[in-house]
Amino acid sequence: MKDDIVIAKTAGFCMGVRRAVEIALDEANIKNKGSEIFTFGPLIHNPQVLKLLEDKKIQCIEEIPEKGKGTIIIRAHGIPPQSKKKLEQAGFEVVDATCPRVIKVQAIIKKHSAEGYDVIIAGDHDHAEVIGLLGYAGEKGHVINSIEEFENLPAYEKAIVVAQTTQNTKFYKDLEKTISEKFPDYKFFNTICDSTEKRQEEIKEISKDVDAVVVVGGKTSGNTKRLKEVASQEGKTAFHIENESELDMNFIAAQKKIGITAGASTPNWVISQVYKEIKTARLKKEKSALLCCFIVLKFLFRSNILLAAGAGALTTAAAVLLDIPLEFPTVLTASLYIFSIHTINNLTLIDSDRFNDPQKANMYEKYKFPLSFAAVFAGFLCIAMSFSLGILPFIAVIIMTIAGLCYKLPIVNIPKITNGFEPLSRIKGSKALLIAGAWGMLCTILPIFSANDFSFSKIPGILVVFIFCASMAFFRTIWFDILAIQGNKIAGEITIPILYGEKRTSDLIKYLILSMIFLLFISSFTGIISNFGYLLMIYPAISLIFILINTKKEIQPGFFDDLITESFFLTAGILALIWKIFS
Ligand code: SF4
User: Fold this and answer.
1) Probe residue for ligand 1, chosen from 18, 196, 261, 265 as the CB with the greatest number of ligand atoms within 8 Å
2) Which pLDDT does position 38 carry in this prediction?
3) Which residue from 559, 571, 566 is spatially nearest to 291, judged by alpha carbons?
4) Which atom of ligand 1 is nearest to the CA of 223?
5) Candidates 3.40.50.300, 3.20.20.190, 3.40.1010.20, 3.30.1360.70; correct CATH number of 5-10+196-295?
6) Which residue's CA is minimally distant from atom 2 of ligand 1?
7) Where exactly are the structural domains of the chain?
8) Which of 115, 172, 280, 515 shows the smallest number of beta carbons within 10 Å?
9) Residue 305 contacts residue 339 (beta carbons within 8 Å)
10) Do 15-98 and 102-194 agree at the fold level?
11) What digits encode the pLDDT tens for the residues 523-563?
């Protein structure tokens, strides 16, 4: 089904805002844990981000005190050089998060005003960036926000014209044309950030094709306001909202096609939330059978039931790869273990889910007790079932359960990595590796032990299947970590994408999946695993295609993308059943 909601690829954090937020969060989570952190003026123009910085005890000050201590972060928009000096003199440790593109405009102004040029800045008089730029121009700075304001300026002997980085492109071009006709000797620097230009160009294109446009972002954000202007200029009804609660859902749901974009300081999780609300409202309006499916799938996904079924499916595929008999109780034991461990995990991750998937966080908060009960009950049932399978499966499940429960206990002491005894969870990036190890053990060792079919000749096959299952589980975890990167950073979680960057992590996933296709092929070819390995290659292959398509998107809005990722394990089980039926 073709989606009738179009999300601009350029929606969300631009490079400068992302950098500023990351600098602030790194200061709070890693570098300056415990000491006082301030921002001089709001770090960016977005209320949700400012609120969470407040929650992280990062305070915003507007005036420079005579004496200060701690770290002060300079906002993405930059500040006048005189203010920076005063902050240092007051005793703050200054961390400069000014966007590099704003620094470039500051440098142009500094150089030309030193050479005697007057500086005309096309921008909003009271915008933080413009105030900062004026500081570099000194007496020679002049701000104009309309052609009329330019007409009121005197003629200068020599002057340069620059633009606020988030200026409306059309306005700047008209202004440049007017000024150059009158003063051909003035020098022009189109300093509009290409991120702003691309954003405006894209929403202009999208507006032509939709019935209404929703622009998400702070009410004081200049670039967000301009996106609404651009959509309105195209003759479309446009709404500027800070969050989904401000939407007139009756109106929105009645439109055939909706466009969504967002300002440079709008976090992904706010955009995703708006998208999800609009999608749900439209499904409700249509009262389609799709809505029931949507609600059921959402529940299966968020409650980990789908994931538990996936564990059973992967265990089935592993047994077929190892050519060993498999009983349903073994599949059920694997499913119960995964349900229990992942539900406990979700209950401890409510804070980061608040940003990544607020509806999921609400569900876990609201149903904390029944979900905790279900997780513990499933855990006990899993142990009981493993006992019925035999002593070895029982020991394997007990070891994995103890390892899972110890994850948050201070039991590891690794020189240069930990500060004395710390929980395993504090080792950066450990979560994905441990989950992968648990899935590998569960899907491989459990069926082997349950079938009582271990022999030394099987070790190469067991290793291959272990690596395959662990790698596919590793892929799932770090893929979701990439999608949740902003929320995890805010919650202070240190995941692999946070440590190594989104691009490098998604490259790692691609190579990993590619290696798994190769591993299955070689191992089947050499007879280390059964010929089912050839058919199972479909599973990593479709995962790879999905990743290749999705890494092209700037923002990952969809519940459907999450659902597809979560359903990949089921593919392995379906392929195993097909193999069993036809072989
Ligand atoms: S819009 Fe451009 S100039 Fe402004 S903060 Fe973002 S990247 Fe920097």
Assistant:
1) 196
2) 93
3) 559
4) 1
5) 3.40.1010.20
6) 193
7) 5-10+196-295, 15-98, 102-194, 296-582
8) 115
9) yes
10) no
11) 999 999 999 999 999 999 999 998 888 776 555 546 667 77
